[in-house]
User: Which sequence fits this backbone?
C-alpha cells in the first residue's frame, strides 16, 4: 500500500481484511510503502512475481492521475498491472470555513467568489493531487477565479481551512466529518452524482449549482501483469463477498464510501477510462511533478 496507516485507504483495507481472510483461507499482511504519491508501492508490485502473494491497493490517483502527473514512471499503469477489483467509490465534499466565506449554500458560495475574483485561496493536499484537480475542474465549470495553495498532506490542508488561512477545500467525506460535526467547517456539496449516506442533507454539486460536475476517487486491488486469471477471479469474488456483508456496508456508509462491484473486464475498462480522463484534467490545469 502506498499510503500511511490510518489513511482513508488503510481504513477501508482494515474493514475488508477479516472477511477476506476467512474467504481466502489465509492471512493478509499490509506492507506500507509510502512516498512519491503511491508510486513506490506501485513499482514494487509491478516488479513482483505474478503468483498472487503480492498485490497493490491502488486508487484512481495511482492509476489515473499519476500517469499524467509524472513524466517518467518506472512502470506503465495499465500494461504492468492486472486489475482485479475495485473496492469503493469515495466522494469528496466542498468544505468551507464560514468565517472566511459566509455561504450556506453552494450557490451563495459561487456568487461571493465570483464577485471577488482572485481574492479567495483554496487548499489542497498537494500539487496535482486529487483534491487539487477536483477543485481546479470545479473552478473551470463554475467560472471561478481562485488561488491554489498546496499543502504537504491532508492534515495540514484541513487545518489551513479550519484556521482561516484558506477558505475551502475538497476532501474525502470520511476525513472531514469530525470537523463538520464540531461545527468548525460547513459542507456545501458532494462531488459524486448521488448524495452520500453519511451526510444526506448535503446536496451534490451537480444539483446545487454546477450541472454536469462529478469527481470522485476509487480504491481498488491490482496484481502484477501476467497474474493467472483464476487467481484474479478468486480475489475478485472474495472482495465482492466482503463488500456484500451488511455490517461492512453499514460501516462504509458511515465513512461516506460506496461499495463498487465490477468484473475483471469492467475494472480494466475503468482504469483505462479514468487514466484518459485525468490526463485531460492534468493537461488543462498544467500540473506537473517532474
Assistant:
Amino acid at each position: 500500500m502506498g499510503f500511511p496507516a490510518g489513511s482513508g485507504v488503510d481504513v477501508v483495507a482494515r474493514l475488508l481484511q477479516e472477511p477476506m481472510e476467512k474467504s481466502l483461507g489465509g492471512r493478509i499482511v499490509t506492507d506500507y510503502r509510502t512516498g512519491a504519491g503511491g508510486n513506490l508501492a506501485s513499482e514494487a508490485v509491478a516488479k513482483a512475481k505474478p503468483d498472487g502473494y503480492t498485490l497493490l491497493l491502488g486508487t484512481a490517483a495511482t492509476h489515473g492521475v499519476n500517469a499524467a502527473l509524472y513524466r517518467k514512471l518506472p512502470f506503465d499503469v495499465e500494461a504492468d498491472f492486472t486489475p482485479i477489483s475495485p473496492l469503493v467509490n469515495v466522494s469528496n465534499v466542498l468544505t468551507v470555513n464560514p468565517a472566511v466565506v459566509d455561504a450556506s449554500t453552494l450557490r451563495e458560495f459561487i456568487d461571493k467568489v465570483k464577485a471577488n475574483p482572485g481574492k479567495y485561496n483554496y487548499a489542497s493536499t498537494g500539487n496535482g493531487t486529487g483534491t487539487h484537480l477536483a477543485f481546479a475542474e470545479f473552478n473551470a465549470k463554475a467560472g471561478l477565479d481562485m488561488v491554489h495553495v498546496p499543502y504537504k498532506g491532508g492534515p495540514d490542508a484541513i487545518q489551513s481551512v479550519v484556521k482561516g488561512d484558506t477558505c475551502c477545500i475538497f476532501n474525502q467525506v470520511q476525513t472531514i466529518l469530525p470537523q463538520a460535526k464540531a461545527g468548525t467547517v460547513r459542507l456545501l456539496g458532494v462531488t459524486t452524482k448521488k448524495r452520500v449516506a453519511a451526510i444526506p442533507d448535503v446536496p451534490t454539486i451537480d444539483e446545487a449549482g454546477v450541472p454536469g460536475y462529478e469527481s470522485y476517487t476509487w480504491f481498488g486491488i491490482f496484481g502484477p501483469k501476467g497474474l493467472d486469471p483464476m487467481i484474479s477471479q478468486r480475489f475478485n469474488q472474495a472482495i465482492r463477498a466482503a463488500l456484500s456483508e451488511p455490517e461492512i456496508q453499514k460501516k462504509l456508509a458511515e465513512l461516506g464510501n460506496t461499495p463498487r462491484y465490477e468484473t475483471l473486464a469492467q475494472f480494466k475498462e475503468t482504469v483505462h477510462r479514468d487514466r484518459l480522463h485525468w490526463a485531460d484534467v492534468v493537461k488543462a490545469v498544467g500540473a506537473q511533478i517532474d
